[in-house]
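The instructor's notes for this session suggest beginning with a concrete chain rather than abstract definitions. Hand out the sequence below and ask the class to guess, before any prediction is shown, which regions might be ordered.
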Amino acid sequence: MVMKTILIRENQMHLFEEIEGNMVPTKQWMQTKYNQFNQELFDGFLPPCRLMTKKLAPKHLGMYSTISANPNFPVTRENIYDVAIPTIYLTTAYSAPEEDWENTLIHEMCHHYPEFDKEGNARKIDKENKGHGADFMNAAKTVSDRSGGKYTIHRIATSEQSSRMGFETKDRSFSKMRKIKLIRVTFANNGVSAEAFILTNSEIVAKQILNMSADKKILVTDNTTIVNSLIKNGFKIFSPITNNKAIYIINPAIEELFDKCRFIEFREDDF
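After discussion, reveal the predicted structure:
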């Protein structure tokens, strides 16, 4: 198989900062939206909360956490920020439309809401009611009612959100993954190795690339956000039929992009 290896210029990489109008949340964006939604949806009821961004586990968009209360320091609205350290995290692992991040942030705010009763006093949440129990669902209903149905908060991301965020297929079967896959591979020539990637919809091509790899393995993802962005910006699908056999070298900018998705390892026995 004769292939053409293409180096990717750094100035092509700006397109990955914001993919097809999507965004990655920042602390400043979170603070602005937290203040806005607290007033619009919770009547300013929520006390301050730490707002953080970091790369969470795959398919985790947000997280709410507090530390266990110290009996010597009862939690109140005035001291919860320092005593219980309530924190909302949004992941930086995915790029998505702003409305999806708004829903995710409000979802986590619904976890913060039940910490106090209607009078604003700290309350102990029943063990059975933690997480997405009745308290959470009541808060979610409050949000839906006050927003006129604009924000409908679910326990988990909807299938539409999952698609927009490019969640990868969990199935290890190559044939059951989405049509176009991104394959990253290590080649070696005269003792020099290089990381590269291709786009393909062919299992035959995947096997050929595997056989040519230096370590007899390939890493595969069907993350739609990444795949569609690459195609939109001129990266070609590897196709023996059209004689397009380009393999792209992975540079630091591409590596940073690939850090945003989950790859599945395939070896010869996996096909």
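Then share the key points. Residues 187 and 214 are 5 Å apart (CA to CA). The helical segments are 27-42, 80-83, 98-112, 134-146, 159-164, 203-212, 224-232, 252-258.
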